[in-house]
Write a structure and sequence with these properties.
Layout (H helix, E strand, L loop, with lengths): L1 H25 L5 H24 L5 H28 L4 H8 L7 H9 L4 H23 L8 H5 L2 H14 L6 H27 L3 H5 L2 H21 L8 H11 L6 H8 L4 H30 L1
Length: 304
């Protein structure tokens, strides 16, 4: 119950900050172009700095084992999404993509930081790395109508992959980061959560709200993304001892997050319906404010 209260408070906080993004856009204080530039700042600078900061910690074999476990569980989680999407949405490209890939970065990092602490971003980054590789392989394969091959360059130059690579070198190389550099990265990491929510709010403000609520198909796919896939993964995690609770909860937060932001970006790139993709992202984001506390609290009770 205590976790549920913490989650509800954090989700409410995130929602309020998102509403500031809505108001800033509606009052023309932030434009669509401005939101894209802020999003780029998050993707290419603030997010990677937050990840590298999480790796800049004292080495321990326990954390190393937990990190490797997170990589393994992330592969399982993404695989569950792929299997479910194949069974339910074989001929619906955007639905299949939405079901498989969550917004583990924008929604995951703020929640993981608030509930588990900055050190747990270390584990979340492992999930994000696995999801990024899957997105640029399986995800592109699905959206392109199974015509496009794997773009290795885009995988290797992705900011998440690069920051995880740098972080792994720092962590396993036991490199001591100077105190001032640590302070800089820590300060930058504080910007990540509120700025991500403001950007989300700006994107939400651009979608006609009635178009979100009058299409049953969007609800169905969003609930598969937000409820079915996380529940399957959550019950599989019962098999993992609670000594790895922090890892389990990190994986659950990432798995139960709404549709990935890249849904709209890649839909446009591979000539899919961008409007539908944006509605999926927006509705699943709104619904996640309700579903995430329910799913995470339920799984915490099941694991107890």
């Amino acid at each position: 119950m205590e976790l549920g209260i913490i989650l509800l408070k954090q989700i409410l906080l995130m929602f309020v900050i998102m509403m500031f993004g809505v108001m800033l856009y509606k009052s023309s204080k932030v434009t669509n172009q401005g939101a894209k530039e802020l999003g780029s700042m998050l993707l290419y600078f603030i997010g990677p700095m937050t990840i590298i900061r999480a790796y800049s910690t004292d080495f321990s074999w326990m954390k190393a084992h937990q990190l490797l476990l997170t990589f393994a569980l992330a592969i399982i989680s993404v695989s569950v999404g792929i299997i479910v999407s194949t069974l339910l949405f074989r001929h619906k490209k955007i639905d299949a993509f939405v079901t498989t890939f969550s917004n583990a970065g924008f929604m995951g990092i703020p929640l993981v930081q608030a509930i588990l602490g900055l050190q747990a971003v270390l584990y979340l980054s492992a999930f994000m790395a696995v999801a990024t590789i899957a997105m640029w392989t399986y995800g592109v394969y699905v959206l392109s109508g199974r015509q496009e091959g794997t773009d290795i360059k885009k995988i290797l130059t992705n900011p998440v992959i690069l920051s995880v690579f740098v972080g792994l070198i720092i962590y396993f190389g036991r490199i001591s980061v100077p105190g001032f550099a640590m302070e800089v990265m820590t300060t930058i990491s504080y910007i990540n959560s509120p700025l991500a929510m403001i950007v989300l709010g700006v994107y939400l403000a651009q979608v006609p709200w009635m178009s979100l609520f009058n299409q049953k198909e969007i609800y169905r796919t969003s609930l598969v993304r937000l409820m079915l896939v996380p529940l399957i993964v959550g019950f599989m995690l019962v098999l993992i001892p609670n000594g790895f609770y922090e890892v389990k909860m990190t994986v659950m937060i990432a798995t139960s997050a709404p549709a990935a932001f890249n849904t709209a970006i890649l839909a446009q790139q591979y000539h899919q319906d961008v409007g539908v993709a944006v509605r999926y992202v927006c509705l699943s984001t709104l619904l996640s404010l309700i579903t995430m506390p329910i799913i995470l609290t339920l799984m915490a009770m099941v694991w107890a």
